[in-house]
Amino acid sequence: MTLxxxxxxxxxxxxxxAAAAPQISLSRPVEQRxxxxxxxxxxxxxxxxxxxxxxxLDFTVTHDGKIEGVTSDARAGREALxxxxxxxxxxxxxxPATDLAGVPVTRRVSVPIRFESPQGGxxxxxxxxxxxxxxxx
Length: 137
What we know:
Layout: H1 5-15, E1 30-31, H2 36-40, H3 45-48, E2 54-61, E3 67-72, H4 78-90, E4 94-95, E5 97-98, E6 104-105, E7 107-116, E8 124-127, E9 130-133
Antiparallel strand pairs: 1-4, 2-3, 2-7, 5-6, 7-8, 8-9
């Protein structure tokens, strides 16, 4: 017996083989304490001179709120800066995104970060809606 193309597609979808389609999320991951990432950011003194004016921090918040795959698009000092980003993210608790049924799902996040050092002032970072003076060691 030969299935029509429509029935074959329906059978394939029903079987779960085509279930690899991306999940649609209704919400986005959020910090449980707003501003936590900004508050927890620490930059070693030796890295301050290599900070870009702006970078984008990318990471994944898994369905159970864990952080994975932390990277940035910084050029100089990227490895050291990504280590600092991972540390800051690990000190924060995240609520994962949810799908249309309210079930937690894994989702990739991109956060723009701008570094500034005002004349005679401390190094500050603008992370999302938050601007904080960065502690350095």
